[in-house]
Amino acid sequence: MREISEEEYKNSFMNSSAIPDKAEEIHKKAYEIANENRKFEISNYWTRASYYWLFQASVYAGYFYSITAENNEYLCKNPEIIVVVTCLGFLTAFAWYLSNKGSKQWQKNWENHVDELENGITGPLYKTVSDNGTWSVSKINELVSLFSFIAWIFLGFKTIHSFWAYNIFVFVSYILILGLIVFVFLWFGKGLSNNKKPKFFKRGEE
Description:
Layout: H1 6-13, H2 23-66, E1 69-70, E2 73-74, H3 79-117, H4 137-164, H5 168-188
Antiparallel strand pairs: 1-2
């Protein structure tokens, strides 16, 4: 991607040098779309957060139920299943953390557009605030997801220690699995912007 200058940005959405007679209309429409998308991203952020909160609560419940002991015996007789549950908990917590960061980035993208476009339409309304510092609920939610996937790492180590004591092979295998999960998410989960020309097809014709 190429970085554009402030002047080029203004020429695209405010001055509209390409269509000068519609510059005001384009400016207003660009602001409306940016503001709508900002609100859309905020709504999506909390929808995704609710989804992951529910998933995490379910996995935590399954984990702690499985390791509940009765008569000094765990309810789950197969320790491999409990390890799989901890890996699932780590996977969903890490996905939650990355989704939070991705959602916040898109929200910030449209907020930046609103910041730039609003001056000539509403004045600096969005940029004018009554408090110069407060808590960010989205950042707090991001921290919760971060601590959650860290907690799953420790729960996994505790589970392995409980069932296999200090078996180095099991510990190394667990670390490799977690590393593979992180690698897959970081390598394949990031959206890439490219300039590939889209292909179109007409229905009903060979």
